[in-house]
Amino acid sequence: MVESHIQLLQGMPIFGGISQDTLEYLLNQAQIVSVPRGKYFFQEGDPGDAMYVLEQGEVAIIKSWEGQSHVLRHLKCGDAFGEMALIDLFPRSATVLATQNAKAIQLTHSLLFDLYAKNLEQFTLIQMNIGRELSRRLRVADNLLFKAKMERSVHDAEHIFHAI
């Protein structure tokens, strides 16, 4: 079972360049969390102390706005979520709902701290990889925000032009 988990992690950018020994160490310490369809891994505002690697099922990432829930995206096997909590130690920024029966590998802050004490180089590489993944997501979000702003500016300019 650990071999399939190792292959799953090796295919993810967050674990790029991480040694098999380190992956085995993490997996031997990690818990597998099962969440049935319609239940939550965590909710927006909950304390954040772990990231998850989805090994089965599908989840929806949901953000609340003015009392309404909005699905940001869906994740499937091999996707990770919750990793921001390992970097910023803030409460969860979104809700993760299992849209199918789901299983995920849970990697806690304390587990990564243990890795820090055991192998600083591998710990640092994981942290850098998480930072790169978060940076990639921020770049995508910035581009979407810029595009929305520009479309709004064009729409406003067209509206003003037609009013003249």
Q: How would you describe this structure to a colleague?
A:
With 164 residues, the protein is an alpha+beta fold. The protein has a single domain, classed as Jelly Rolls (Sandwich), CATH 2.60.120. It has 5 helices and 8 strands, in the order ααββββββαββαα. The longest helix has 44 residues. The radius of gyration is 19 Å and the shape is globular. The relative contact order is 0.18.
Question: Structural class of the secondary structure composition?
Answer: alpha+beta
CATH class: Mainly Beta
**Tally of distinct domains:** 1
> How do the helices and strands follow one another from N- to C-terminus?
HHEEEEEEHEEHH
Q: Tell me about the biggest sheet?
A: 4 strands, antiparallel
List the helices and strands and how they pair.
Elements: H1 2-10, H2 20-29, E1 31-35, E2 40-42, E3 50-56, E4 58-65, E5 68-76, E6 80-81, H3 84-88, E7 95-98, E8 102-108, H4 109-118, H5 120-163
Helix pairs in contact: 1-2, 4-5
Features:
Jelly Rolls; four-stranded antiparallel beta sheet; alpha+beta; 164 residues; globular
Tell me briefly what this model is.
This protein is of the alpha+beta class and 164 residues long. Helix content is 48%, strand content 27%.
